[in-house]
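User: Can you recover a sequence for this backbone? Please restate the input before giving your answer.

Assistant: Of course. Working from this structure:
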C-alpha cells in the first residue's frame, strides 16, 4: 500500500499483511451521532433521497437540509446545513482510499476483512478522532436531531470502514437508477461512458456487500418518481422501525422535497454502448430486485461480485492513476533536488568568493614603483 497522493515520494509497504486480532481503540469517549448512511452511484438520486429523509426529522450531514416553512406549515423550504462535519468526514474517506491506493472513481481491489488491516486501524484511530467533535452528539457544532443521514459517493467502498470504526452506523439506504443516469452525471467530469457503466456496477455491488447484516432500505429512484407519496410513507415506516419519532407532516415534507428535486433520468446513451448498458442492467437486475424495499436485516442469498469486464476496466483505471501519481511525485522529487542543488551551488559560490577576498586582503602590499 502507499501513502496518500499528497505525500512526496511513496513508501512501499509489504504486499501481504497479518490481520489485526486486537480490538481497535474507540476513536472517542463521547457517543457518536447515530447515522443512516445513503450509498449509491453518482446520478442515482442519493443526495435527494438523503434530503427527503432529513425532511422527516433526521439531521442532514452536508448539502442542504429541508426545514419547516415559516408559520409552521406542512411544506418545507430548503436551507443550507452545516457542511463542516461532512467535509472533514469526506477527507477521512479520501485518506483511507489513498492508503488503499484508490479513489471513488478508481476504487481499490479489496479482500474480505480489509478494514481490520493494522494500517487501516491506525488510520482510523487518528482520523476518526479528528472529526468526533463535529459529529458527536455532545458537540456544540452539531445542533439538531440526534440521528443523522449522510450520503457520500465513497460509502459504496468504505461502508465496512465506517461500520467498524463508527459504532453509530445504524442502517443503510441504497439508491439506484438506470446505468444511463450515472453515465450522464459523470460525463461532465470527463469520465467516459464505459468507465461510468463500470462505476455503476461497482458502486451497487460494493454497497450491497458492505450493508450486509444492517437494516436496509433499497430505493429504485425511478419508481420513487412515479409515486413519491407511497415511497415517502414506506420510508417513514422504515425510520420509525429504527426508533425515530417522526414530527407531524414528515411525509408531506419529504414528498415536497422529492417533487421539487427529482427530474427525469437520462434514458439515452451513445449507440456504441447501448448493448453494454443493457447487459449491465440485466446483470444486476436480480440483486436490485432483492434489495428493493425495506429489510430488517439485509442478508441476500447470494453474494454479488464484479463482472470480469468491470474488474479489468477498474484495474486499468487504478494502474493509470498510480502511474500518473508516481510520475508527478518523481517530477516533484526532481524539482526538489534541483532546488537543493542550486542552493548548494549558490552557497559554494559565495564561500569561494569570500575566501578569495580574504586571501587577497592578506597578501603583502605590492612594492612601490619609483
Amino acid at each position: 500500500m502507499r501513502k496518500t497522493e499528497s505525500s512526496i515520494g511513496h513508501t512501499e509497504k509489504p504486499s501481504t499483511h497479518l490481520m489485526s486480532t486486537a480490538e481497535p481503540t474507540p476513536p472517542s469517549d463521547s457517543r457518536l451521532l447515530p447515522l443512516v448512511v445513503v450509498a449509491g452511484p453518482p446520478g442515482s438520486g442519493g443526495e435527494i433521497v438523503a434530503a427527503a429523509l432529513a425532511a422527516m426529522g433526521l439531521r442532514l450531514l452536508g448539502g442542504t437540509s429541508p426545514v419547516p416553512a415559516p408559520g409552521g406549515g406542512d411544506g418545507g423550504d430548503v436551507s443550507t446545513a452545516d457542511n463542516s462535519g461532512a467535509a472533514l468526514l469526506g477527507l477521512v474517506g479520501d485518506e483511507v482510499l489513498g492508503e488503499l491506493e484508490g479513489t471513488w472513481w478508481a476504487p481499490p481491489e479489496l479482500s474480505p476483512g480489509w478494514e481490520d488491516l493494522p494500517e487501516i486501524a491506525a488510520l482510523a484511530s487518528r482520523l476518526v478522532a479528528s472529526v468526533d467533535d463535529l459529529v458527536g452528539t455532545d458537540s456544540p457544532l452539531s445542533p439538531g436531531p440526534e440521528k443523522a443521514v449522510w450520503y457520500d459517493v465513497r460509502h459504496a467502498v468504505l461502508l465496512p470502514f465506517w461500520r467498524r470504526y463508527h459504532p453509530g452506523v445504524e442502517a443503510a439506504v441504497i439508491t439506484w437508477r438506470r446505468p444511463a443516469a450515472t453515465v450522464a452525471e459523470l460525463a461532465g467530469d470527463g469520465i467516459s461512458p464505459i468507465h461510468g457503466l463500470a462505476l455503476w456496477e461497482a458502486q451497487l455491488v460494493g454497497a450491497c456487500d458492505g450493508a450486509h447484516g444492517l437494516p436496509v432500505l433499497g430505493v429504485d429512484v425511478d419508481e420513487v418518481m412515479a409515486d413519491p407519496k407511497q415511497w415517502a410513507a414506506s420510508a417513514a415506516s422504515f425510520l420509525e422501525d429504527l426508533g425515530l419519532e417522526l414530527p407531524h407532516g414528515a411525509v408531506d415534507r419529504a414528498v415536497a422535497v422529492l417533487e421539487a428535486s427529482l427530474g427525469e433520468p437520462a434514458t439515452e446513451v451513445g449507440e456504441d454502448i447501448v448493448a453494454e448498458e443493457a447487459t449491465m442492467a440485466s446483470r444486476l437486475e436480480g440483486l436490485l430486485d432483492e434489495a428493493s424495499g425495506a429489510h430488517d436485516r439485509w442478508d441476500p442469498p447470494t453474494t454479488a461480485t464484479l463482472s470480469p469486464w468491470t474488474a479489468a476496466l477498474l484495474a486499468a483505471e487504478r494502474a493509470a492513476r498510480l502511474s500518473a501519481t508516481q510520475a508527478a511525485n518523481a517530477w516533484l522529487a526532481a524539482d526538489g533536488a534541483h532546488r537543493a542543488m542550486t542552493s548548494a551551488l549558490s552557497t559554494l559560490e559565495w564561500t569561494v568568493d569570500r575566501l578569495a577576498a580574504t586571501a587577497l586582503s592578506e597578501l603583502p602590499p605590492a612594492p612601490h614603483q619609483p
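That completes the design. The beta strands are 35-39, 59-60, 64-68, 76-80, 148-151, 169-176, 216-220, 293-295.
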